[in-house]
Every structure is written in structure tokens, then in C-alpha cells.
Amino acid sequence: MIYKETFKIGLKDVWSKNEVSNIAILEYLEDIAAYHSDSVGIGINTTKETHLNWLLLDWELEVLKRPTYGQILEIHTWSRGIEKFYAYRDFEVYDEKKNLCAIATSKWLLVDSQTEKIARVEQEMADRYKSETEKAVFKDRKIEKIREPKEYLSEMLYTTRRRDIDVIGHMHNLYYLYLAYEALPEEEYSKRPFNHIRIQYKNQIKLGDTVKCKYAKENGENIIVIKSENEKILHAIIKLN
């Protein structure tokens, strides 16, 4: 089943040349994923009854064309497959002229909201999504793990604040990208927007945690690794190019 919603690009959603930002695109995608789950009875409003949450594990976004402020986007999303504990979801973003502007894929984990442990996706739940198993935006590849760089060029520390925390008590998924931008050297930051983004989430960040954002560049790609201050916990790896 293809689920569709429209979104209007607002002032906070654009940067230079009035073009939609990567963070705004990911926000739209996160919202429509939640709306789709709401529509099948497994969303934020039913957590108190189901005790279940979908936890995002991985993003891959490729921007093909950047719409500008005020335009109406039509976004399509669908479940590409659900197995045991994991769900795979794809996205297409179209502008007002029906041009394909961005594609994305994602991986999600089902978690018990009371115990914070992994929960199995029951067949009845999986059936509600009516997965489109033959429809994939990246037909030639799967989401693969990002390896850590061997050497880093710089690093910075950040302590999470109240504004960073989401509805389930962890640092919001999109704010990892904000941290990655802050960790970039100015000469790399000035090259925005990046048209290809990977975010791999490993361990959650909570209020008051101090994290270390380590920057490297390999094969023309900017890589930001977010770890605990003592570097014993890996929180996320982000690639921008």
C-alpha cells in the first residue's frame, strides 16, 4: 500500500537560494512514516495501549532536485518489507509538477515502550501495512553498515539539552544531523546542501549526555562519528557528500 501526504515548504524549511533543506526533507519523511503507522493503528496515539514504538535505525536520502519555499510537495511512502523485529520503508518526494525530487530508504526496529527491549513484529501487525515487496527506490543496493574511519581530523563535545529530546525521551533523530553539521570544518560546511546523506543510529542519546563528534574525510565523503565522551559507546555515524 502506497501512503501519500502533501507538505508545504515553510520558512524554517529552507536555506540558501530558498531551497528546501535536508533536515526539512527528513522531517517530512519522518512525519509521513508516523502518519502511515497511525493509519494502521500502530502510532504515537496508540502507544499507551500497544506499548510499542518504531525506533529508527538508518536513513539513506538522495536529493535529485530541490524545490523552493512555498511549493507543495507530494510524498509517497510504503512498507518495503517487515521481518521478525525490523521494518524497511521507502519514500519518494514529488514537486508540484510531479517531478521526482528525492528518494529515501530507512530501517526501523520495533521496541517495547515499557521495557525498552526489542519486540517481535507479529504477522497480524505486519499484514496491516500491506508491504510493497517489489518496489524499492534503491534497486541496486541495500542499506549496509558504515565502518568507522581509521583517522580523524577534528572533534567537538556537545551536551544534550531539553530542546533536543523527543516524545519518547531520547535525542530526536533529526538532531543527529544538526550535530554532524556543527562538527564539519567551515570549508566543508559551506558546500551545503549535500545531496546524499546516510545516518546510521547505534545507541540512543538522552538528556544531559555529553557526546563527542569526531570528523573525518575519506574518498571525498564527510564522515561524522558520534560517541560518548569516553568513546566507549557509539551513538551514530553520518556520511555527507
> How many H/I helical runs?
5
- The biggest beta sheet, please? 10 strands, antiparallel
- Quaternary state of the chains: single chain
Q: Averaging pLDDT over every residue, what do you get? A: 94
Helix and strand succession?
A: EHHEEEEHEHHEEEE
* Low-pLDDT segments: none
Gyration radius over CA:
18 Å
Structural class: alpha+beta
Q: Assign a percent range to the helix content.
A: 10-25%
Can you walk me through this structure?
By secondary structure, the protein is of the alpha+beta class. It is 17% helix and 37% strand. It contains 5 helices and 10 strands, in the order βααββββαβααββββ. A 10-stranded antiparallel sheet has the order 1-3-4-5-2-7-10-9-8-6. Strand 9 (221-228) and strand 10 (234-240) form a beta hairpin. It starts with a strand and ends with a strand.
Q: Which structural traits does this protein have?
A:
single chain; 241 residues; alpha+beta; ten-stranded antiparallel beta sheet; 5 helices
